[in-house]
Amino acid sequence: MKIGLRVDVDTYRGTRTGLPRLQDALDRRGICASFFLTVGPDNMGRHLRRIFRPTFLLKMFRSGAGSLYGWDILLRGTLWPGPVIHRRLAWSIRRLGDTGHEIGNHAWDHHLWQAKAHRLPRERVIEQIERAHEAIALSTGRVPTCIAAPGWRCKESLLSTREQFGYAYASDCRGEGVFQPVVEDQPAGPPQVPVNLPTWDEVIGVNKCTRLDAFPAIASNIRRDGYNVLTVHAECEGGAAARDFEQFLDVMIDQGWSFVPLGELVPDQVESGHMTTGWIPGRDGWVAMRAVDVT
Ligand SMILES: [Zn+2]
Q1: Of 14, 20, 242, 255, which is most buried by a Cβ count within 10 Å?
Q2: CA 294 to centroid of ligand 1, rounded, Å
Q3: What is the pLDDT of the chain when averaged over all its residues?
């Protein structure tokens, strides 16, 4: 009865307040998770341009994103250059390095990756990974052992950009079960640990789900003896949804579940699979997904 727990830290504010708060909540319960850090410039406010898309606007209203994320996050990088997270918030990142949590590479510039990594030249993509890798190693005092593409924006062509860093696994896509991606009959990058449970912001607004029902809705997708991987965000579960998340942790622990870092889910023998793209209810735009192989 295991749930792989992944924490994404996407922004300056998430690193400053959400990361320490989430880390403390997990440490108090003796839970080890996988933390994926963003350490370069915080330009997440550039997503504000998406506000002109009706689906995004609707989601903002439903989830109360202004109060949830804070208007500072929503505007960051739009009116002035975004702050470089690891330079300003070294104390918060170092604090994580002194624990037993798994440390992973999420992004240098989260916004840049999410918006167009699949369209950037390969050298530029590798440079983004390398800059984050080095800054995370320097700030935490530990070399990151895993990687997760921002916003699950990954294509088969990007998988091999992960090869030179020695990562034990990548968590670049959504779907069921750990697999070794194969591209043109060759293994590409490390094994993938896909995320299969919906995130907080994905359940909100679908089937009239409110903030009060969010974690029960997530929990209804968890399968006994099944594959369960959950992503939480420092900006959300370490912020406005922190109390609800802690309550969820306690309920699940009471029921006999244990939360583990994603690395613990990788078996010795990993089956092969393929990566494709698809859509997730409640999420804007395409994401990478494990292909359901038809045999
Ligand atoms: Zn992210």
Answers
A1: 14
A2: 31
A3: 90
Determine the distance separating the centroid of ligand 1 and the alpha carbon of 33, expressed in angstroms.
16
pTM score of the predicted model? 0.89
273 vs 179: CA distance, rounded Å: 6
Distance from the alpha carbon of residue 149 to the mean position of ligand 1, in angstroms: 7
Residue 256, amino acid:
G
Domain boundaries, the chain: 2-290
Cα(233) to centroid(ligand 1), Å: 8
Distance between Cα 267 and ligand 1 center (Å) = 25
CATH 3.20.20.370 assigned to domain 2-290? The reply is yes
Residues near ligand 1 ion, CB 5 Å cutoff = 8, 10, 150
Ligand 1 center to residue 20 CA distance, Å? 17
Whole-number Å distance between alpha carbons of 21 and 91: 14
pLDDT tens digits, one per residue of 49-67: 544 455 655 666 666 665 6
Summarised one tens digit per residue, pLDDT across range 183-208 is 999 999 999 999 999 999 999 878 78
H-helix or E-strand spanning residue 180: strand 180-183
Distance CA 126, CA 136 (A): 15
